[in-house]
Amino acid sequence: MGDVNKTESRLPLDDDSGPCPPIEGYVTTGRWRQLRCPFSALLTSSRELLPLTTLFPPTNCPLEVYVNRSNTLNTLEHSQSNLDRCTPHYSHSYRHHLLFALLLVLVAWTSACSGSTGLANSLKPAASNSPSPGSSAASPGGSTPSPVTSLTSPTSNLPTVNLLTFGSAGFGGDDTNLLQSALNTTAANGQALKIPAGTYNINPISFPANSQVLLDAGVTVQANPGYGPNDKMLTIKSQNVTIAGAGATAVVFKMRKSEYAAEHASDGSEYRHCLDLEGAGNVTISGISCNQSGGDGLYIGAGPQGQPSQNVTVTDCIFDQNFRQGWSLISGQHIFVYRSYFTNTSGTAPESGIDVEPNKPSNPVSDVHIEDSFTTGNAGSGLTFAFWLLDGSSQDVDITVLRHHSTSNQLSGYDADNNDVTPNAQGKVLVQDSFSDSNGSYGVLGHWYQADGPTLVFQNLSITNPHQNGPDPTYHDSAAVACMRGGGGGAPIGNIQFSGVNIAITNGKVDRYFNFADGSSKGVEKMVFAPGNLSGAAQVPPNGLIQSAGFNTVNQ
Asked: Which of 95, 187, 281, 349 has its CA 20 to 30 A from that of 114?
């Protein structure tokens, strides 16, 4: 779609772009086993110590200690039949050099069984050592830092009811009806639904008002085969909903992306979202992953009466290997996203990690905060601001992005466009103390960004080695940051400010630090380029160009 007079192709970001090959893989999680053992079972006397390889713990300890399967303590694990035995078995042979390591284990065990959590928690893997989601797909420039996760089971101030009190689940069958019934019942009764570790298979589920769901570490919820073109795995159109997982690498909602990718050529669907919010309010999501959807990992949009989603908080989550976007923000007010990952999106355009893209002028995107989050390894841009369907009747744009990392995406680290109309939408986007590293095209690109639209501000942005794929294929340009347009525009472009921007080039693929040029001959206005530290561009001085004229700084 778009203006047919424009010489530059400008596809609507939510339109089809044709089929894509099946894509496999997803974020995996560690398995955990509960081991119960009193301190007394570990010693036969003050002199005899039980070797780890021969200890079968009894089942009478009232507290639990979790041991990671990949930990060096995995010699404690045995077949389930042996774990079910009550009587420990012993061996009289041991090595003295194991004494110190074993004593440390015993101290941790003692603390767990006596009610202390500090040392017991030390047996859990450190979050900073967890593998990054899809890190093998990252392009040069380093892998994504690991998500901050907590393997502590979430709690509630409501009475808690275990899912398994409603019936059997997690044995390979279809768990949809049981889970939906449990959600409806607990929400109606003012209770929290607790889902224990296990693998559950579901068709689409909806969350009634006042739902509260707690998910233990080791929960995997996977989509049954056969989702239709518009089916969403998890839908929230209600108020007061909480989904709290024990950690994004330990609680995974997983769809069947390869199945949907194969069907995309015939049904054209890009709407099989994993977590879908439509006109929802007072929603809190934490500590989960939503992966391998046939659309978006997270979709936040308007409800049936056009009302925006409001008061939504997403914390410590992962959205990996989704088909269209990691996250689409279509219509929302008071949206808060903290420490979350939007990674390895590929399938159909725009394939961004995050895409803020209202579908109509009446869709607001206001009081939006994205902090300490990551867009990495996506086939499109890392973070896209697409305001091209807003106009002068729209509510002011209000978006703040702090300490964001946009890394190793195939297109630009940050990409923005807006509408070529007068009057245009107003407002401001602030990206502060953030990073754009090793992206395929520009560090930042404002394309078709009309100067009378929302102000776009980048403060203290650090850009490292853009244009990993060479010059931008649309503009045949290799500046680090740009505001560009081809032919067919009706008003000047601009209104982008780079304040304290730091650019470091070591890959030899960047000619200048900036290029601001309008191929429509309407001009470039309201641009700022106030550099911090600059190094490595091949054709400096001057630092950059405005309509082919050289400048070192810009303050229009």
From this structure: 95
Cβ 166 vs Cβ 261: under 8 Å? no
The pLDDT score that the predictor gives to residue 307 is 98
Is 335:368 a contact under the CB 8 Å cutoff?
yes
Please name every residue paired with 374 in a beta bridge, in sequence order, or none if there are none: 341, 405
- Please check whether residue 33 is in contact with residue 73, taking contact to mean a CB–CB distance below 8 angstroms: no
Under 8 Å between Cβ of 207 and 241: yes
Cis amide leading into 541 (omega within 30): yes
Q: Please name the residues in contact with 4: beta carbons below 8 A apart, sequence gap of 6 or more.
A: none
pLDDT in tens, 354-409: 999 999 999 999 999 999 999 999 999 999 999 999 999 999 999 999 999 999 99
In whole angstroms, what is the distance from residue 424 CA to residue 382 CA?
25
Task: Express each pLDDT in 245-279 by its tens digit.
Answer: 999 999 999 999 999 999 998 889 999 999 999 99
What is the helix, strand, coil percentage profile of the chain, to 5?
A: 15, 35, 55
> What DSSP line would sit under 202-222, residue for residue?
ES-EEPPTT-EEEE-TTEEEE
Closest CA to 185 of 203, 207, 204, 201: 207
Instruction: Catalogue the E-assigned strands of 152-308.
Output: 160-162, 192-195, 198-202, 205-206, 212-215, 219-223, 234-236, 239-245, 251-254, 275-278, 281-286, 289-291, 296-301
148: nearest Cα among 118, 128, 125? 128
Beta carbons of 72 and 52 less than 8 angstroms apart: no
Nearest to 125 by CA among 45, 42, 30: 30
DSSP state letters, 146-158: PPP---SPP--SS
Instruction: Using DSSP, state whether 132 is helix, strand or coil.
Output: coil
Q: Which stretches of 316-454 are assigned E, i.e. beta strand?
A: 318-320, 325-329, 332-338, 341-343, 354-356, 365-371, 374-376, 383-387, 397-402, 405-407, 414-418, 427-432, 435-437, 444-447
Coil/strand/helix, residue 259:
helix
Q: pLDDT (tens digit, 9 = 90+) per residue, 3-50?
A: 333 334 333 344 333 333 333 332 333 322 232 233 233 333 332 333
Beta strands 549-551 and 544-546, pairing class:
antiparallel
Collect all residues with Cβ–Cβ distance below 8 Å to 96 and sequence separation of at least 6: none
Q: Are 187 and 209 in contact (CB under 8 A)?
A: yes
**Gap between the Cα atoms of 427 and 96, Å rounded:** 70
Give how far Cα 163 sits from Cα of 83, 216, 239, Å.
Answer: 25, 11, 22
SS3 category, 82:
helix
Token pair 């206001």: residue: 366
